[in-house]
Amino acid sequence: MKRVGTFITGLLVGATLFGGTAAYAAGIMAEQSVNRFLIDGQEVQLDAYAINGSNYLKLRDIGEAVGFNVYWDTEKHCVQIESDAPYTGVAPVANAENVPLASYEQSEIKPAPQAGDVIHCSDGYAYEIKDVSKYSNSMFATEETEALPSPTCDWSLLSQPALPEPEARHFTAGGKEYLFVRKLYETKRMQYTLYNAIGDDPQTWKNGRPVTMANGDPMVRINLSIPNEINAPSFWPWRSKQITELFNSCPPGEYSMEAWDVYCDGTFRYTEYYIHVT
Question: Residue ranges of the domains in the chain?
Answer without folding.
Answer: 1-92, 96-277
